[in-house]
Amino acid sequence: MAVLRPLKAVIDNYPEGQVEEVDAVNNPEDESAGKRKVPFSKVLYIEQDDFREDPPKQYYRLSPGREVRLRYGYFITAKSVVKNDSGEVVEVHCTYDPATRGGNAPDGRKVKSTIHWVSAAHAIDAEVRIYDKLFTKEDPNQVEEGQEFTANLHPHSLEVIAQAKLEPSLANAPIEGRYQFERLGYFCVDPDSRPGRLVFNRTVALKDAWAKIEKKSGA
Asked: Considering only CA atoms, which of 72, 152, 151, 145 is closest in space to residue 115?
């Protein structure tokens, strides 16, 4: 698992200092790929986009009072937030239900969203490069009189995320190794990687239903 834009999530009722291992599927599309062990602890990183303090309609991810499933982990409910001097949420405090280990509730209750995470104490840092279309138009030469094709260059064709957080199993990922980061896309290890400082390039994006809704509404 990987978190590209980390937001700290603290599980207040999780035992201090406890670390357990949960089973994560290596390839959700191929059961024969087996499973791996992933550390779980009191302090996690989740995606910034997976929390909204004031959630709009059709947003089912984590928000105050709402329960969601941590992938391969537990059900958690957001209770409060910590903000910085600019008013931005930098930490979400939650509680968890110990009976839901593995992602299912014995009483049969359901949740509408599953989010991914990494244990903060065990996460490794990585640089992630997100590539988009190079040009804003299908035909770059379609320009106004007097302009060059460079006028159609996409200003955000490359986004570099300097402080992504990855699970520790990726620490020795080989150059050109290919991985699926669940819900985020497919990634390849860039030759710029160095020991202790991995660099990943996104090769294929995955559809994000909420991102599409946000884009339409201008949120």
From this structure: 72
Residue holding tokens 């709402």? 66
On the CB side of 151, how many CA atoms lie within 13 Å of its CA?
9
Integer Rg of the chain from CA: 19
- Which residues, at least 6 apart from 174, have a Cβ–Cβ distance to it below 8 Å? 189
pLDDT, tens digit, 9 for 90 and up, residues 144-191: 877 777 776 777 778 999 999 999 999 999 999 999 888 889 999 999
* CA distances to 97, 98, 104, 110, 111 from 107, in Å: 12, 13, 9, 9, 12
Instruction: Indicate the helix (H) or strand (E) that contains 7.
Output: strand 6-11
Task: Name which of 164, 206, 156, 170 is nearest 39 in CA terms.
Answer: 170
Question: Do residues 100 and 18 touch, judged by C-beta distance below 8 A?
Answer: no
Nearest residue to 128 (alpha-carbon basis) of 89, 183, 185, 49: 185
What CATH number should be reported for the domain whose range is 124-217?
A: 2.40.240.10
Which CATH superfamily does the domain covering 2-119 fall into?
Answer: Ribosomal Protein L25; Chain P (2.40.240.10)
| 178-211 pLDDT tens trace | 998 888 899 999 999 998 889 999 998 876 554 5
Q: How far is CA 88 from the centre of its chain?
A: 18
